[in-house]
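Aim 2, interim progress. The first record below pairs a target sequence with its structure tokens.
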Amino acid sequence: MLLPAIHFEGNCNEAISLYKEVLGAEVQAIAYFKDRPADSGMEETLPDDFVMHSEVKISDVVLSMTDGGEKRPTGDNFSFIIIKENKEEVTDIYNGLLEGGKEIIALAPVFWASTYGLVEDKFGISWQVMTRE
């Protein structure tokens, strides 16, 4: 099993909420730093309401999402691709992810899809959104 991991800096719950609303994500598991045992040896400086670990399913892919861990640059080294059947679905998802984010490639027809766009959401995560054909 390959479990892609995304590290956030305190706004993981907000990202999960957005992905539930826009992408139909399902939370399969979630634990907060307040849930850790007192003798866990885990960093005590992180707030209790930070997400320690979550598994979030989007389409057929499960992602690990957390507020913990080392700081990492966001958005530069990977993107997710969402493929939908029609332009309306692609447009809705693109616009939902664009709120508070930035447009990298505007929605337009391309030779490999009737509609394609690239957006970086407000958390710095890059999403390629396109139709199947």
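The second target in this work package is listed in the same format:
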Amino acid sequence: MTEGKHPVELLLDIERRSKHNAKGLPQQIEKKTLWSGIGFRAAGINLVAPLSQVNEILHYPKLTLVPGAQAWVKGLANIRGTLLPIMDLQGYIGKDAITLRSQSRILVIRQGDLTTGLLVNEVLGLKHFEPENRVVRVKKLDKAIKPYIHGAFLHEGQTWHVFDMAALAQDPLFLRVAV
């Protein structure tokens, strides 16, 4: 103990010096929660599916044709020992079938008992959107795709329509694959 100083004074002096020499605490930065999804293109539209609804992205596999199936049913693929039906999303919504290119991809979805692959023109990668850029009302969309669109995001001058894979998987028209 320092002579002549009361213990409380010593503690107050230590506190004062500590505060004077202390570095500032890190500032709390407001953390924004971003909405994330897989961006893809079909029928000339920028689409984004919730990240939780796309299980895998594949290159176009070798297929076995399925006789008596709708034209938009491309066939069955053997993916690691599991048969995966491949559907042409663009063909399903009444547009011309997708012309296969090096960018064409299969989005694998699992919704309830349904596991299928959706052929799309291209996958545009992981997309992140700020919630304040969400658009609830979407205008000027083909009526065949509109039931699967649940809002959109505006990002860098482009509209990204949110495609709900669960709504597609529950649609009786999508499940009716036989001609």
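The first strand starts at residue 35 and ends at 42. This observation will shape the mutagenesis plan for the next reporting period.
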